[in-house]
UniProtKB/TrEMBL annotation:
A Pfam family that the UniProt record links to this protein: AAA_15
Gene3D superfamilies xref list: P-loop containing nucleotide triphosphate hydrolases
Name recorded for this polypeptide: Cytochrome c biogenesis protein CcmA
PANTHER family hit by this protein: ATP/GTP PHOSPHATASE (PTHR43581), EXCINUCLEASE ATPASE SUBUNIT (PTHR43581:SF2)
Protein's organism: Blautia obeum
Domain Endonuclease GajA/Old nuclease/RecF-like AAA intervals: 32-459
Length: 479
């Protein structure tokens, strides 16, 4: 069965087999309780604007990535997480996270531990010293600068850290006033440990494409954090090109390593007087190998075999003379090369699947994978046999870049099992692409859990038609 046949097969929405069973977010924006059960592999939620869909996905992403410092910028009262076949329901409050982050910061900055003072309490003390600040609900830039300066001065804290603490306080002021109890950081430590143990998947997050820069700003991610968060999809094509180059170099390295090891094995055979078994040499080459395969394995060893010898070997294969007894040892060498080629096949298949999947979405262009030269290029349609005009990844449309970025993560970067989170996948995609996207993600056989929120009915106008759910049904008014 060819790859293209596989890509047309129907995808079944199976039972979720990851350890993640449930996530609840309570008191979101001081208004909503959200409870999300993960019963199936594919979880599609439909929701109108104003329900906080993006914030909900951000929360889930931060939880699974154990990036609890980012949750302090989101207004909520409590988060609950349940894992399959585990009795315990993990519960953490906003105060718990504040305490957890304070303890973590304390390990980095000893002055926080020595003063034994919560940052929020220090900010409030500064505010009490200035009545205008205490009762002013419309905070301007002057107030922010004043609090930042005073916090930095009184705690001898770097100004950028002080500003971040003040912004965090301002964003969560209502929660802090409402819930003055001291949090228990151990609750968060316990959840971090549980997630590390039970959620071993890669977490791939695809934010809303058109708002990606705004999303990054709202998430307050520093550049170094973006570099570390490899699975937070960025749409720069340099990332995709690096993934392509990396997997091609892996194949190239395996080919050269295999050739080196093969020469050692053959040398040992010949020194020891061993003869390759005629039946094995004949049957392997005859049954499993064609001309193109031999050409690929010869090309991949580069200059280790001179071009004139490669040409002669290919002529022998083409005219059938390779089967003569006098070429018994040559057949043995070719078989060793083919054995090494089989070790590279898993990487070859990933590139082929990536190219074939992306080609379903590309307009008037296509990826072409040359296994002999180990190159993956984008050709303009009908140009391959003529002047071989190619284009760069950066010349793709925004929708095409979105597709290529996603499937490069799933096919090229790693073969690890993944949990994929997508916010409004319909943006920048044509109606036909919307229908194809989720089934194609599941056909990668690399996604064990998919969570997406959407406005568009075309996203689930496919085999997942009956799996889409209204998000409002999972939201209650917070009491």
């Amino acid at each position: 069965m060819t790859y293209k046949n596989i890509y047309e097969m129907q995808v079944e929405n199976k039972v979720n087999e990851t350890n993640l069973e449930y996530i609840g977010i309570f008191g979101l924006f001081g208004r909503y309780d959200i409870e999300i059960p993960f019963d199936k592999q594919v979880n599609i939620f439909i929701g109108e604007n104003g329900l906080g869909k993006t914030t909900i996905l951000n929360c889930i992403y931060f939880i699974l990535e154990k990036n609890f410092s980012r949750l302090t910028n989101i207004q909520f009262s409590e988060i609950k997480v349940k894992f399959k076949n585990k009795e315990k329901m993990y519960k953490i409050s906003h105060a718990d996270i504040m305490e957890y982050n304070r303890e973590k910061r304390g390990k980095r900055y000893k002055y926080l531990l020595e003063r034994e003072m919560d940052i929020n309490e220090m900010i409030e003390r500064i505010m009490f010293q200035n009545d205008d600040l205490l009762f002013d609900r419309e905070w301007g830039e002057d107030n922010l600068e004043y609090l930042t300066y005073e916090l930095s001065r009184q705690l001898d804290m770097p100004i950028n850290i002080a500003r971040r603490q003040v912004l965090n306080y301002m964003n969560n002021r209502d929660i802090i006033f409402k819930n003055k109890r001291k949090g228990n950081g151990n609750n968060v430590f316990d959840l971090v440990k549980a997630i590390s143990e039970y959620v071993t998947h890669r977490i791939i997050y695809l934010p809303t494409y058109r708002r990606i820069e705004d999303d990054f700003a709202s998430l307050n991610l520093r550049s170094e954090e973006l570099n570390k968060a490899e699975l937070l999809i960025r749409f720069g094509m340099s990332d995709v090109q690096m993934s392509i180059d990396r997997i091609l170099e892996k194949i190239r390295s395996l080919a050269m390593k295999g050739f080196t090891e093969m020469t050692g094995v053959l040398l040992k055979q010949y020194v020891d007087g061993e003869s390759p078994l005629e039946e094995k040499s004949y049957s392997k080459l005859y049954a499993d190998t064609d001309y193109e395969t031999v050409k690929i394995v010869l090309d991949r060893v580069g200059k280790e075999i001179e071009d004139s010898y490669k040409k002669k070997i290919l002529n022998l294969v083409s005219n059938g003379e390779i089967w003569k007894y006098e070429y018994l040892y040559l057949r043995n060498l070719i078989n060793k090369l083919i054995d090494n080629y089989e070790l590279q096949k898993a990487y070859d298949d990933r590139i082929k699947k990536f190219a074939d999947t992306c080609n379903k979405y590309l307009n008037d262009k296509f990826f072409h994978y040359n296994q002999s030269t180990l190159s993956l290029e984008i050709f303009l349609d009908n140009e391959l046999k003529d002047d071989k005009r190619t284009i760069e990844l950066t010349q793709l449309s925004s929708g095409e870049k979105q597709i290529v970025s996603l499937f490069s993560k799933l096919y090229l970067e790693s073969n690890d099992r993944s949990i994929v989170i997508i916010d409004e996948p319909e943006l920048s995609l044509s109606l036909q692409w919307q229908k194809m996207l989720l089934p194609d993600i599941m056909r990668t056989d690399n996604c064990d859990l998919l969570l997406t929120v959407t406005h568009s009915p075309f996203i689930f106008e496919n085999e997942f038609d009956f799996d889409a759910k209204e998000m409002r049904k999972f939201i209650k008014i917070y009491k």
